[in-house]
Amino acid sequence: RIGAEKASCANDLAKAQPFVDEANAAINSIKPAHIGEIKKLANPSDIIKLVFDGVLILFQGPLASVQSCKINMAKTEISWFEPSFKPQALQMMSNPNFLNQLVEFGNTGKDCMND
Fold it and tell me: What string of pLDDT tens digits covers the 115 residues of the chain?
């Protein structure tokens, strides 16, 4: 029984590994200029704001108080909650160590996450 479960887990891991490799390559391709470009956007698209909400959560950063709003996803308006892009994500990106922290999370931090 243990052998079958171990084989099943190894199979699941093998299926997920290409996605992990792709995510690591994406993190390693981020340059300081990319972060600067996002910081300069007066009103970034909702998907960018939500991505940074995810980064704030992964880094256990502060989030805005939950307030309902409408956002646009794939040209469809949906009910959601106000993203934490301003000021929380902008402050996080202003940290001179932000890119290094992001890369470090990709290298080892993700392995320290639990359910």
Answer: 899 999 999 999 999 999 989 998 999 999 999 999 999 999 999 999 999 999 999 999 999 999 999 999 989 999 999 999 999 999 999 999 999 999 998 888 888 777 5
Compute the distance between CA of residue 114 and CA of residue 26 in angstroms, rounded to an integer: 22
Question: Encoding tokens for residue 20?
Answer: 């992990």
Peptide bond into 87 cis (omega under 30): yes
8 Å CB contact between 89 and 55: yes
User: What span, in angstroms and rounded, lies between the C-alpha atoms of 71 and 58?
Assistant: 22
Residues 6+ apart with CB under 8 A from 83: 46, 49, 50, 52, 53, 64, 71, 89
